[in-house]
Amino acid sequence: MVKQLDVRIDRGSPVPLYHQLAEQLSHAIATGALQPGDPFENEIALADRLGLSRPTVRRAIHELVAQGLLLRRRGLGTTVANRQIHRRAELTSLFDDLKREGASAPSTTVLVHEIVEDERAATAMGLPPETPLLSVVRLRKAGDLPLAVMHNWLPPAYSDITREELEKDGLYAVLRERGVRPVVAHQTIGARNPTPAERRHLELRPSQPVLTMTRSAFDAVGNPVEYGDHCYRAQDYTIEVMIDQR
Q1: Where do the domains of the chain lie, and which CATH numbers do they carry?
Q2: Which pTM does this prediction carry?
Q3: Which residue, 107, 91, 129, is CA-closest to 228?
């Protein structure tokens, strides 16, 4: 028998509807409300019950299939997967990562610190396009080695964060001191050729690419925390994925 989960969708939240749904379904699987092998409510019934569009529900289900939490089989429908092969990554900053790994002392130089209007960043955080945002560009080093050029936009609630705070500590550490903890994020990783300024700051040759990461982060109640667009020296940065077979 198909279980109907108690899903709560907040249409006033800046967190995308598909992500809200995917997070709650993932939680149900993680806590055992849905067990391996359980049949999963079909897309049309779930969309009708929650008042969501089918594309929204389809995208949420696709997220869980991609994470290995759901299994789709033609003619048999969708069921909860027997093996979980995804573990949620912790939301951390590069500064936190470097400190945890015991790398050479991380340091930060703030290159830009100004109030701007940026439609792309505001939209990513679910804010009106004309919202004044704190735009910060930082160069992060480990010892003498440049690792990343990081561009962040922060909503008005955090526009008083100073250059001095950001050069002393990581952005997420500064936010934690204010009682702010991002818990939901949409993150995209890619690669491209660096701009002339990025090549200069990262001391790259023309043929060397950069690894890129964009992230929209929100707190536990859906308030925007930051939008980031970062690039890293590809040869000095790796992405580790935990494989958890149960």
Answers
A1: 17-80 (1.10.10.10), 94-236 (3.40.1410.10)
A2: 0.61
A3: 91
